[in-house]
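Protein modeling request. Please complete all fields; requests missing the sequence field cannot be processed.
Requester role: graduate student
Desired output: 3D structure, token encoding
Chains: 1
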Amino acid sequence: MAYRFYNNCVGWPRNDVHNDGGLCDMIQSGRDITRPTFLKHIDKGDLRDLEDSLGYDRHPSKGLTMAGDGYVGYSRGVLHGKRVYFFKHSAIEYVFTQGGEP
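Delivered output (102 residues):
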């Protein structure tokens, strides 16, 4: 099952930001991974929608793609004891969970 987009840190439930196992712990548990590894695990349709909403072009001949943006980082971490995948864009974490559930 592909990991689905759940939420970003801006819209995160306030009571789960500093909660044990919550957002801050997830970020701290994060380990860098490559974009190809990230893509193996997440729903590509969800990612495509996020890339569009962030203003990325779909092909390098048209402009900057997310794949070509060296300032985007990809990670895997643990949120409440479960593996998650996330990317960081402009200091905002975008989190993918199994089934898109918290």
